[in-house]
Amino acid sequence: MNKKQGFTLIELLVVIAIIGILSSVVLASLNTARDRGSDAAIKGNIGGIRAQAELVYDSVSPNSYDDVCEEIRQATEAAEETGSTVLCVDSGDAGSNGWAVKASLKTDANNFYCVDYTGVATTTSGTNPTITDGECD
C-alpha cells in the first residue's frame, strides 16, 4: 500500500479563508481602539490647557485671559497632530473675560470635546464648533 500524506487543496483553501476572516475582525477592532486612543490623547491635551490658561491669567496677562490662545498654542498643536480640528477663543475674541477650547474627536466627526474657563469639560455634538462668550455651548 502506497499512501500519500498531506493536505488536499480544499482543506488548505478552507484554512486560508478562516484565517482571512479572523484577521479582518482583528483589524477592524484595532482601528476602533486606535480611534479611541486618539480621542483620549485629544482629551488629555485639551484638558491640560485649563492649568496653562490659569497660569496665563496669573502671570502673563494679570487678571485677563486675553493671550490664552497664543500662550497655549503648543497644546493645541499637539491635539491637531492627532488629526483633530481645534478652535480656541479667548477674551480678546469673545468680548468677555473668558476662554474656551473645542477640539473634534476621531470616533465621530460631529463630536467635540470642549473646555472653558468656568471649569466645564464636556463632549458636545454638532457640525459647527462655535464657542460663545468664552464658554462651551
Which terms summarize this structure?
two-stranded antiparallel sheet; Fructose-1,6-Bisphosphatase, Chain A, domain 1; 137 residues; alpha+beta; 4-stranded antiparallel sheet; single chain
Helices, by number, come to 5
Q: Into which percent range does the helicity of residues fall?
A: 40-55%
Task: Tell me the strand order in the biggest sheet.
Answer: 1-2-3-4
What is the radius of gyration computed over CA atoms, rounded to a whole number of angstroms?
Answer: 24 Å
Largest sheet: 4 strands, antiparallel
The domain tally reads: 1
The span between the termini is 82 Å
At CATH level 2, the architecture is 2-Layer Sandwich
- Global geometry: rod-shaped
Write a short abstract of this structure.
The protein is α+β, with helices and mostly antiparallel strands.
How would you sum up this structure, described in words?
This protein has 137 residues and is an alpha+beta fold. It has one domain (9-136): Fructose-1,6-Bisphosphatase, Chain A, domain 1, CATH 3.30.540. It has five helices and six strands, in the order ααααβαβββββ. The strands form two sheets. The protein has a four-stranded antiparallel β-sheet. A two-stranded antiparallel ribbon has the order 5-6. The longest helix is centred in the N-terminal third of the chain and has 39 residues, at 9-47. It is rod-shaped. The termini are far apart. The mean pLDDT is 81.
